[in-house]
């Protein structure tokens, strides 16, 4: 579904285009001294503009209501991280994005035996509500020295550890959305507004995945019908996950 604010922008664009078209037609009729047709066109333009204005106002009201209804939804962002040269830079960059998001709880889980001072300092400096956790990846999930990065899933133990923390520490009556945010990704602020509307599960396309331009859902008739995974359809996996969530 197209976000309300984008719908509003589209409507305003159509509004401006419509004005240009009608003004051009009016100019043409005036040059031909066709007064009757020009008056009819003016009335038609007036009616169209009023109709379009009502639609824009309705979308704006719905958008404001939706935003108001979801202000109490807490976003729990789970970020697995591990020691590397760019770790601090990646976490700082992500924290500067998250600073602009209201009602957010950042859960950072280190792939480490202990919690490090480096990560703790980044979290404290961010002034974001946070929880610092740590758990070492099991040996059967660790990559070998010559293994390609795609051979085994990364961050699995860290994400599961964060989910367990949420189950134990967040009340069931609290409205919230859980999102897995990797520390080396870039996020648009609009995404956080959209995810607050989640009722069961939400999925978004992700750009620049490895050598691919994108991975994500196929949407038909405002519903997700399939999922592109590594450039191929993953309909069987998508159907299995979707049925589990119903």
TrEMBL record:
<keyword id="KW-1133">Transmembrane helix</keyword>
<keyword id="KW-0808">Transferase</keyword>
<protein>
    <recommendedName>
        <fullName>Galactosylgalactosylxylosylprotein 3-beta-glucuronosyltransferase</fullName>
        <ecNumber>2.4.1.135</ecNumber>
    </recommendedName>
</protein>
<comment type="pathway">
    <text>Protein modification; protein glycosylation.</text>
</comment>
<dbReference type="Pfam" id="PF03360">
    <property type="entry name" value="Glyco_transf_43"/>
</dbReference>
<feature type="transmembrane region" description="Helical">
    <location>
        <begin position="12"/>
        <end position="29"/>
    </location>
</feature>
<keyword id="KW-0325">Glycoprotein</keyword>
<dbReference type="GO" id="GO:0050650">
    <property type="term" value="P:chondroitin sulfate proteoglycan biosynthetic process"/>
</dbReference>
<dbReference type="InterPro" id="IPR029044">
    <property type="entry name" value="Nucleotide-diphossugar_trans"/>
</dbReference>
<dbReference type="GO" id="GO:0005975">
    <property type="term" value="P:carbohydrate metabolic process"/>
</dbReference>
<dbReference type="GO" id="GO:0046872">
    <property type="term" value="F:metal ion binding"/>
</dbReference>
<comment type="similarity">
    <text>Belongs to the glycosyltransferase 43 family.</text>
</comment>
<keyword id="KW-0479">Metal-binding</keyword>
<keyword id="KW-0812">Transmembrane</keyword>
<dbReference type="GO" id="GO:0000139">
    <property type="term" value="C:Golgi membrane"/>
</dbReference>
<keyword id="KW-0472">Membrane</keyword>
<keyword id="KW-0333">Golgi apparatus</keyword>
<dbReference type="GO" id="GO:0015018">
    <property type="term" value="F:galactosylgalactosylxylosylprotein 3-beta-glucuronosyltransferase activity"/>
</dbReference>
<keyword id="KW-0735">Signal-anchor</keyword>
<keyword id="KW-0464">Manganese</keyword>
<feature type="site" description="Interaction with galactose moiety of substrate glycoprotein">
    <location>
        <position position="215"/>
    </location>
</feature>
<dbReference type="InterPro" id="IPR005027">
    <property type="entry name" value="Glyco_trans_43"/>
</dbReference>
<feature type="binding site">
    <location>
        <position position="184"/>
    </location>
    <ligand>
        <name>Mn(2+)</name>
    </ligand>
</feature>
């Amino acid at each position: 579904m197209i976000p309300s604010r984008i719908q509003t922008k589209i409507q305003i664009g159509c509004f401006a285009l419509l004005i240009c078209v009608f003004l051009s037609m009016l100019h043409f009729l005036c040059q031909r001294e066709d007064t009757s047709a020009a008056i009819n066109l003016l009335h038609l333009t007036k009616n169209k503009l009023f109709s379009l204005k009502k639609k824009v106002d309705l979308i704006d009201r719905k958008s404001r209501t939706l935003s108001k209804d979801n202000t109490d939804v807490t976003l729990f962002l789970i970020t697995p991280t591990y020691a590397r040269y760019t770790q601090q830079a990646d976490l700082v960059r992500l924290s500067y994005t998250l600073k602009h998001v209201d009602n957010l709880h950042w859960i950072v889980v280190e792939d480490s035996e202990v919690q490090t001072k480096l990560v703790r300092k980044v979290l404290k400096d961010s002034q974001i509500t946070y929880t610092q956790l740590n758990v070492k990846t099991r040996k059967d999930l660790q990559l070998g020295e010559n293994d390609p990065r795609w051979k085994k899933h990364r961050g699995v133990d860290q994400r599961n550890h964060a989910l367990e923390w949420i189950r134990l520490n967040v009340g069931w009556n609290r409205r919230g959305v859980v999102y897995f945010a990797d520390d080396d990704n870039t996020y648009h602020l609009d995404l956080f507004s959209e995810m607050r509307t989640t009722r069961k599960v939400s999925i978004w396309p992700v750009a620049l995945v490895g050598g691919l331009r994108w991975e994500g859902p196929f949407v038909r008739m405002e519903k997700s019908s399939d999922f592109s995974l590594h450039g191929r359809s993953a309909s069987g996996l998508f159907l299995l996950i979707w049925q589990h969530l119903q």
